[in-house]
Amino acid sequence: MITRKKPEKFRLRRTMMFMNAQKPSLIKDAYIYGSDSIILDLEDAVAENQKDSARFSLYHALKTIDYGDTEVIVRINGLDTPHWQERYSLCCSSRC
């Protein structure tokens, strides 16, 4: 299991990289680009018929990949959509 550092009170974010959560190869190597933050997008970047597979890929990545000091953010659907609870549950269960 990966242990994550406690978040700092203030964090400098010079670069934030959006990644499509549907692309496991991008998620796996996201940290090598040196961004301060990686935003894994489960909302607009993922087609409606691919949401479940993207959620599975992201869950696996969050459980197994060590992003080091890079901040990892998951972008989920809005609270007024049918998908938000599934995405929120994913984040809670993977401890992100």
From TrEMBL:
Cofactor(s), names only, from the UniProt record: Mg(2+)
Keyword annotations from UniProtKB, A to Z: Magnesium, Metal-binding
Gene Ontology MF annotations: catalytic activity; magnesium ion binding
Keyword Signal: no
Keyword Metal-binding: yes
Domain HpcH/HpaI aldolase/citrate lyase, chain residue ranges per copy: 14-86
One GO BP annotation of this record: oxaloacetate metabolic process
Protein name: HpcH/HpaI aldolase/citrate lyase domain-containing protein
Native species: Fusobacterium nucleatum 13_3C
Record lineage: Bacteria, Fusobacteriati, Fusobacteriota, Fusobacteriia, Fusobacteriales
